Amino acid sequence: MSFKLTLENKVALVTGGSRGIGRAIALEFASRGAAVMVNYNSSPDAAEEVVKQIQEAGGKALSRQADVSDFKQAEALVKFTIDTFGDLSILVNNAGITRDQLIMMMPESDWDAVISANLKSTFNCSKAAVKHMMRKRTGRIINMASVAGQMGNPGQTNYSASKGGQIAFTKALAREVAARNITVNAIAPGFVDTEILKAMNPETLEASLKMVPLGRLCKPEEIAFTAAFLASDGAAYITGQVIGVDGGMAMM
Ligand code: NAP
Q1: Which has the closest alpha carbon to 50: 6, 14, 91, 7?
Q2: 167-196 pLDDT, tens digit each
Q3: Which of 15, 87, 146, 244 could form a disulfide with 95 if both were Cys (CB 3.0 to 4.6 A apart)?
Q4: pLDDT band at 251 (very low <50, low <70, confident <90, very high)
Q5: Residue 28 has pLDDT above 90, yes or no
Q6: Which ligand 1 atom lies nearest to the CA of residue 162?
Q7: CATH top-level class for 11-244?
């Protein structure tokens, strides 16, 4: 038996699909045959551009605004995806933000914002999606964690906690839903060349790159390919795992 990396007849919801890694995942999934709901929060033009690119290549996609840190909006987004495309086979919890600051200077609001956007959003969307996937007895959930959630990063107590939380959430949910043929995995990227890195001090980034054995930034497309693999039929026996795509930074 040999598997093909196709996503034909699958429906995917990518949170934060308007930019960066989420954008690359939306394009990758659509190029492999999935219908894709491109979620965005504050970048309608960027999301529409992703949809246009997919449609021009003959694929199926639609964009939808929702702040996934809000439970009701996340629930409505999942419902809209199922109503529009008739299914939800793959959920990618990719939406995320940073608000970096040493703990002494970190306002409570920055802690709350990061935990809500990165971790609570993962609970919100997964809860709604699992309801549908349990009924269908199949599904894939992919959470975009980070090496920061494995190793910790100074100046990122909020971000590291949110990503570590996503990793623990991945393992717990994987055990809960495995009997229904639903897999739940996390990807832990290292430094990926997207706008999120612009918030980082260039000197800190340069110093951090010295910790990457492969010595370069990751391309968003390299994360997208890993996500496509995890979403494919050939990955049906992988669950509760954290796949590092980090140039060798965190060898766990
Ligand atoms: P990015 O370029 O800044 O894009 C972030 C995306 O998340 C945007 O599409 C944004 O949508 C969306 N988003 C943020 N808050 C949202 C919310 N409340 N509701 C819905 N969408 C929301 O970041 P990225 O680098 O692609 O990061 C994507 C994911 O990978 C994040 O979870 C991040 O933590 C993780 N990651 C990134 C790196 C890296 O080095 N880049 C490393 C490890 C992990 P709008 O623009 O529409 O608001």
Answers
A1: 14
A2: 999 999 999 999 999 999 999 999 999 998
A3: 15
A4: very high
A5: yes
A6: 34
A7: alpha beta
Name every protein residue with a CB atom under 6 angstroms from any ligand 1 atom.
15-16, 18-22, 39-43, 67-69, 94-97, 117-118, 144, 146, 189, 191-192, 194-197
C-alpha 59, offset from chain centre: 21
Nearest-CA residue for ligand 1 atom 35 is 144
- Residue 218 · residue 226 · CB < 8 Å: no
pLDDT confidence tier of residue 204, bands split at 50, 70 and 90: confident
Mutate to test the pocket of ligand 1, among 97, 116, 123, 156 (most ligand atoms within 8 A of CB): 97
A 10 A CB-CB count for 214 gives 12
Question: Cα separation of 80 and 102, whole Å?
Answer: 39
Domain boundaries, the chain: 11-244
Q: How far apart are CA 103 and CA 114, in angstroms?
A: 13
152 C-beta neighbours (distance < 10 Å), count: 14
Q: Are 186 and 143 in contact (CB under 8 A)?
A: yes
